[in-house]
Amino acid sequence: MTQEQMKKVLEIGVKLSDQRDLDRLLEEILSCVMELANCDAGTLYLLDGGKLHFKISRNNTLQNYSNGEGMPPVELERGNVCALSLLENRTIRVEDVYSCSDYDFSGPRNYDALTGYRTRSMLVVPMRGRGGERLGVLQLINATDEEGRVCPFSRDMTLVLESVASQAAITIRNVGYVREIKELFNSFVRVMSAAIDERSPYNANHSRRMARCGERFVDWLNARAAERGEEPPFAPRHKEELLMSIWLHDIGKVTTPLEVMDKAGRLTPLQEEIIRSRLSAIGLVNRVQELEGKLSGSERELEDLRVSEALAYVEEINRTEFVTDRQLEYLEQMRSRSYTDQRGNRQPWLTGEEYAMLTIRKGTLSPEELESMRRHVVMTDKLLSQIRFSPELSHVRAWAAAHHEKLNGKGYPRGLKGDEIPCEVRIITILDIFDALVAADRPYKKAKTVEQALKILGFGVEDGELDPELTRQFAESRCWEGLYDREEREK
Q1: What kind of fold does domain 3-177 have according to CATH?
Q2: What does the alpha-carbon distance between residue 105 and residue 121 come to, in Å, rounded to a whole number?
Q3: Which helix (H) or strand (E) holds 47?
Q4: Can you tell me the distance from the alpha carbon of 413 to that of 408, in angstroms, rounded to the nearest whole number?
Q5: Which helix (H) or strand (E) covers residue 140, if one does?
Q6: Residue 355, pLDDT score
Q7: Count of other CB atoms within 10 angstroms of residue 426
């Protein structure tokens, strides 16, 4: 190996070691090897499922490049030169495929007949990992001399290419390991996210829908930037980091009590049943008083009407999104009413605790329950602090834990505002609010239409809570379409 060749091999090694994307890596390998061998064409195969799969091919003369899509795999049979090279772990050098009868060269000959190309010299180099596992094959065609004439591959170059093929195999294997570990981690994240969502039937598919919607929105933003001739705002790793944050944004809900997460009404089921029983008992007391002559028939009917009205009001208020002033006035009147129980004690129609829960203006949670629910973002931050994220995912913890912050500083848990809230967090917040509004699986409200949800997001912009430009772009992107139809809701 000459000093110049040694220098090139080292440069190739450095170049390959920096690449983490498998497709780009395969391109780099074939390009580097063809340049080193000074050859006209080349193909890289990878072994998968007991067959050699055509991954990438170049032909400089024909100015042809292919990623192998649609090409049939090569069986591991000894009659095929690529398969034999891998099976026997040896480099095969052929001076002229048309004068060689040791292998089946019908493929190159058919290719030549179709394209007018002339395949002559060939070098087939197996790629194996450190442990000897078979990974694939490099097939190089038509080496050229300094004057550009086709010639055989030299024996010295064969040794050089074997060295590079060995480096390439190790790099491919390492990238494969990274991809496998990464996919394992991603699978774990998806499982954990699904477990959090499935923990409550009223939160099912929330993170999955957000992730799908978020991916579409990011792709839309990238496409719009490309149309303007600008760099995409979300490169692949940046996009991956954002999506990971979305998948993990609610992981802290693993510590939120189910009775809070699943609370469909302002009253607990037990409180609701106690009120029903109490009002039923009041009706029975009225009947007894009628029999005792303490109430006339018309008075008892009027009292029964008041009891029925009270029960209807309680059931309506318990599950309404907003309590009106009229409803508050009625609850005040109801609280002031009392009856005599079987022991002769005066009892209120509505206890102080029941009154406090029913007069919650918005939502179903008391201040204490709301604080318990809000703690999920603190727990998200705490749980994610235990994960050693790679540098490419270094913002996941902070972004996921900040999805309830608002630009006007009225969010939680830290009350961040303005530029303290990154663009990525602003996107997650919009996605989270939108899904909460249009989702049909929330116990405390009916699903909003898309138009209603967008209008509410607009109110958030007016109140200084949400990013105006991102909210406008989100609405324009229509990235939610198809995610909230009936079939999706039934999953």
Answers
A1: Beta-Lactamase (3.30.450)
A2: 12
A3: strand 39-48
A4: 13
A5: strand 134-144
A6: 95
A7: 21
CA 170 – CA 162 distance, rounded (Å): 12
Burial 22-41 (b: 16+ CB within 10 A, else e): beebbbbbbebbbebbbbbb
CB atoms near residue 402 (< 10 Å): 26
Nearest of 283, 285, 306, 287 to residue 296 by alpha carbon: 287
Give the pair of three-digit tokens for residue 173. 């294997």
Both tokens assigned to 345: 């004690």
Residue 390 pLDDT exceeds 70: yes
The 3-state secondary structure of 261-313, one letter per residue? HCCCCCCCHHHHHHHHHHHHHHHHHHHHHHHCCCCCHHHHHHHHHHHHHHHHH
How does pLDDT run across 252-282, given as a tens digit for each residue? 998 888 888 888 899 988 999 999 999 999 9
Provide the residue ranges of all domains of the chain, joining segments of one domain with +.
3-177, 200-259+368-490, 269-363
H helical segments located in 96-204:
106-115, 155-199
| CATH code for the part of the protein at 200-259+368-490 | 1.10.3210.10
The answer to whether 195 and 231 have CB atoms below 8 angstroms apart is no
Contact between 82 and 52 (Cβ < 8 Å): yes
* Exposure string over 153-191, b if 16+ CB within 10 A, otherwise e: beeebbebbbbbbbbbbbbbbbbeeeeeeeeeeeeebee
Tell me the Ramachandran region of residue 7: left when phi exceeds 0, alpha when psi lies from -120 to 50, beta otherwise: alpha
> Are 7 and 146 spatial neighbours (Cβ–Cβ below 8 Å)?
no
Write the secondary structure of 66-99 as one string of H (helix), E (strand) and C (coil): ECCCCCCCEECCCCCHHHHHHHHCCCEEECCHHH
pLDDT beyond 60 at 488: no
